[in-house]
Structures are given as structure tokens and as C-alpha cells.
Amino acid sequence: MSLINNNDNQSCYMALMSMAEEFRTQTPPDMRSCVQCLLASLNVSTHPAIEAKTHLHLGNILLHFTTNLDKSQSHLEKAWYLSQSVPNCEELMLESASLLAMVYEKKNEIQMSKQILTKAIEESQHWIFWHSRLLFQLAQIHANEKEYLLASNILSIGADYANMSGAHYTRILFLLSKGMTLMIDRRLTEVHPVLSLAGQLVETWNGNLQMKEALKVYFLVLQVCHHLNAGQVKSVKPCLKLLQQSIQSITAYHSEDDYVNVNPNDMFIWMPREHMCVLVYLVTVLHSMQAGYMDKAQKYTEKALMQIDKLKAVGNHPMLNTFQLLLLEHIAMCRLVMGNRTLAIKETVQALQICYGDPKLKIRHKPLIHALLGMYAMSMNLMDAAEAQLATALRTPSACTELRVMTSLNLAIVYLRNKREKELNDLLAKLNPETLPSVSQSLKAAAFYVLGLNSFFQSRYNDAKRYLRETLKMANGEDLNRLTSCSLVLLGHIFYSSGNSRESMNMVTPAMQLASKIPDIHVQLWATALLKDLYGQFGEQSRQQEAIQMHHSFSQMLINDHYQASQLPEHNYIHMANGEDLNRLTSCSLVLLGHIFYSSGNSRESMNMVTPAMQLASKIPDIHVQLWATALLKDLYGQFGESSRQQEAIQMHHSFSQMLINDHYQASQLPEHNYIHWFDSPDAE
């Protein structure tokens, strides 16, 4: 009888697992039914190893396809504890630990995540793949917590372990990841030897060709970023060209199935190749922007954003949000240079909305978004708002050194335009190019330019020329076209003010040519203002008329764009320097985006928008957004099979609805309510 029961149990279990797999792999996947089958299989008496594996599957699905982290944690903890007591379940145990660490990290239980990974690393010494994977995961958590020294030490351990284990591809990945961590931590003297060793190993590695090209892309991306961080726009060109060639080689491969003859311990892909394409577009945008090729930056941004939209339609990987955010931030800066403030403020606010969908992104990018709002306000001649935004960016702890310098330089210009001499002098004392905390050549050149601009406004023309020549020397050395054009037109203005019209013309003419190439509408406006007077002095009437027309055209473009930008709802964000003041606009935008995604059938993306909208609305509190959000959440939780959360959302929605109905009735009974029917003041009657 016992044998028959065992056979029946096994048949029942296999049937449920087959159904679960069928639901999981159908198009579109039916994860709710899949989970129900897996849960049902737990009621069938099976071997503890099979039970542990079922809990692992459930935890994995709940982690990746629902927002119910508590249930995912419960199943993964059961898998973790069961697998430790069953022989020959080491891989199951290690996978459970890896997934459980992800759950703890998502719940912000960072210490728990570190503890279970440390324990699993101790248990995985003889499992090369899992030991390496767990080391990568622990290093990532330390890096996310800005514990870069610990992260780089773990990556060093991983590189040594992979080398001793014969996993040479994985060793290179550890070294490249260490190089990236050192760059983030600004331990720049240690970066070069690590990247040099990694580069040599990439060249001599004789493994799978597609994996080798992927390693080259990783290495070259780090090389390009290392040069760009130092403001070496010209020096980076050979690396950037090699990077673009490597990504073309990778995209020539037909599928991910090209991974053949690969060491099973080297089965790591640092980034999917579709994401690599976006990353190469992104670093090309960064280079184009620093070099002053705004049209090129705009072209590659559009290509990258189109690629991101395609990838998001398949699955919204968190890395795509980071790429999209970086692209929006940088293209917004390009738009300001090109005089398109209307698009700049829209893209800045779009970046802000992405931040509010991910708390970590919000912390990391908040200072840059405030700086962007400040620069936008500067372009709109709203200096008080600009000062408030830039000051907020500087007060934000997560602002990096380069951003602080860039923001301070812009704030110095605000003080200069507002004639705030004391604040300006105090700030300029910290912006001495010789002692600047940044290694960036472009920021040092920009600091010389701001000093030159200040000297010009004080009519200290010799000092101004000295500073601007330093800017030109550095800018010409690294092809920093925008700084070159700004310096040339300012030098032209100085010579014009000194009565040296010939020398002024020699400066303004190339400034205008460069500004047209960028294009930089502000330098073009400035240059044509000088040229129309200079051509008049030299009696060149046809050229003078041409300059007058061009100046009028640039002026009208800026006036029209100024008006259009000022009418946008996004324009109001400049008056909200305190991050908390942004919450209402952000919550409204997020819940509307959530509704749009819901109407389009994209429930997962809808949930990603509505959840933070609800959190923000509760914090304000804004009952209208709460009502709207709970109306969506009750349907979304229903779709995801989260019955308890669905009931909670239904109750909350009913509560908010009743509060508004009751308040509506009470307000309508008040004598003051009748004032809404008066079109003049009561005294007018």
C-alpha cells in the first residue's frame, strides 16, 4: 500500500510540476497559475530535496514576477534551511542563498544580505562558479553601500581565486570590476595597473570569440570613462573608436547561442549585448557633449532611447532605467546649450520621475537634477530660483566632487550676474584651478574661464586675458570646443572694449564658426552682437546686415523658446528647491504614468509607477492621488494574484472614497459654500 501511495504522490507531483512549467513558458506566461501549481505540489509528500527545490522555484518566481517580498523570503528561507540538512544539495543551497540575499537587499535588510552571502561563500569553496558568483554579489552590495574599499578587496580575492581555479575569463571580469570600483572611489593611482593587467589578459585570452569581444567592450568602456573623467576628450578618441568597432563585432553575432566550448566555471556575462549597445551610445554621448558636438550627442541619445524603449517592451531591467536617466540628464544639458529650454525642462522632469520609481536612483541623482534645474533657471534669467537649486545640489551629500565643482562654477556666474561680490569672492577662493579637487582638465579650464569672466566684469582686462589664455591652452589641447568658443568670444569682447577692433575680429570670427558647429546659440547671439558693430566699423555693410539679421534670428528663437518653456507645467519645478516640495507634482505624474501603462496592458510597469506614487501621496498626504492609486492597485494586485494586498487596497480605496464623500456633504451644507455662486464680492451686492 505504501509503494502505491508513493507512486501516486510521485505521479501527482510530476503532473503539477508539468502544469507549472507549461504555465510558465506559455505566451504570455501565466505566473499566477504557475505559482498555484507549485503551491499545490507542496501538499504532496515528497523527498526533502524536492521540497527544497520547489520552495526555491516559488521564491524565485515571487521575487522576479511579483512585489510580494515577504512570501518570496519565506519560501527561499525554507529552501535554504532544508537544503543544508539534505546531502548533495549544495548547489540548491547556494542558489537559495544568492536569491535570499537579493530579497534582503530589496527590503533594505543589508546586514542580513551580507551575512547570508558570507556564510554561503564559506560553504562554496569547492564550487568555482558559485563561489565566484557569490563574491561578485557581495562586492556589489558593498559598492551599493559606498563601501568601496571592502568591495575592491573582495574583487581582488575573487581574481586570485579564479586564477588558481583556472577560470581565466572570470579572473579578467574580477579585475575589470575592481578597476571600475577604484574609479568610482577615485583611487586613480591604483586604476592604471589594474586596467593594464586586465587589458593584457584580454588580448592573450584564447577563449570564445564573442565572450572575448564582450571583455574588450568592458575594458574599453572603462578606458573611455577614465579619460572622460579626466577631461581628456582628445586623448580618448582612439579608445572610443576601438570601442565602437568592438560593439559592431558583437552585434554581428546572430544569437547568444554562439557561446560554445566555454569553461562551465566561466559562465558569466557582464552585460547582455543589447545593453552593451546602449552603453556604447551613452559613452559616445558623454564624449560628444564634452567635445562640444551637441548635434552628435542629440543623434546618439535618440538612438539609445529608441533602443531602451524596445528593450523595455520585452522586460524592464533596472539598468535600463539608469541608462535612460543618464541620457536624459546629459541631453538636457545639450538642449540648454542649443537654446532649446522647452525640451530641456521636459527631459529634466522626466529624469526626476524615473528617480522617484527607484529610491537608490533618487539618492544618487538628486544633486544633478537640482543642478540641471538651476542651470535651466539661469537660462531663463531667474537667478533667485537658480541660486536656490544650485545651493540645494551642493548641500546634497551624494553629490560627487566633479558635480560640486561644476555646480559651484555655475553658482559663481549667478553671484556675478547678481553683483553678490562677497559670496562670489568666497566661492572663487575655493575654485582656484591650481588646487581644484577634481582631476578633470575641462573643469580646470572652466574654472579659468569663470575667473576671466569675473575679471572682465571688473574691467581688469589684462587679468581676464591671462585667465582666458589658460582656458584656451587647455581647451585646444583636448578639443573642448565649447570652452574654446566661449573664451574666444569673451576675448573678442575684451579687445572690443579696449578699442582694438582688429584683434576683436580675429577672436570673434573663429568663435562664431565654432559656435555654429556645436551649435551654441548663446555664443552665436553674443558673437553676432559684436560682429554687427565690428563690420560697421570696417565699413562692410553687406556683412553688417547679415550679422544684424542673424542676431535678430537668434534673439527671436530664444525669446520664443523662453515663452514656450515658461508656459509648461514642468517650469514650476524650478521654484521647488526643497526635494520634499517636489512630491506632489511627482506623485501626480507617477500615478498618471501608471494609469497610462495600465491602459496599455503593461501591468508590471504600471505597478512600478503607482507604488512610489502611493508612497509619496501618503507622505504629503494627497487624498486624491491616494484614491486614484488605490483604484489602480486593487486591480493590479488582483492580476498578480496577491489577494491579501488586493483586499488591503480595496479597503483603503473605500476609506478614501468615504472620507471625500462625507467631506463633500459637510462642505456643501456650510453657508460659506454659497460664495461659489458670486461673481463679484459680497459687498458689491
Count of domains? 5
CATH architecture of the largest domain: Alpha Horseshoe
Number of helices: 30
User: Largest beta sheet, briefly?
Assistant: none
User: What is the N-to-C succession of helices and strands?
Assistant: HHHHHHHHHHHHHHHHHHHHHHHHHHHHHH
What is the CATH C level class of the largest domain, in words? Mainly Alpha
**What integer is the average pLDDT?**
89
Envelope shape? globular
Low-confidence stretches: 681-685
Distance between the termini: 97 Å
InterPro entries: MAU2, TPR-like_helical_dom_sf
GO cellular component, one term: nucleoplasm
Function: Required for association of the cohesin complex with chromatin during interphase. Plays a role in sister chromatid cohesion and normal progression through prometaphase.
Pfam families: Cohesin_load
Verbal overview:
- The protein contains 30 helices and no strands.
- It is mainly α.
- The chain folds into five domains: 1-46; 59-123, no CATH class; 125-270, Serine Threonine Protein Phosphatase 5, Tetratricopeptide repeat (Alpha Horseshoe), CATH 1.25.40; 271-398, Serine Threonine Protein Phosphatase 5, Tetratricopeptide repeat (Alpha Horseshoe); 579-678, Serine Threonine Protein Phosphatase 5, Tetratricopeptide repeat.
- Helix 4 runs antiparallel to helix 5 (90-106), helix 16 packs parallel to helix 26 and helix 19 packs antiparallel against helix 20 (421-430).
- It starts with a helix and ends in a 16-residue tail after the last helix.
- Residues 681-685 have low confidence and may be disordered.
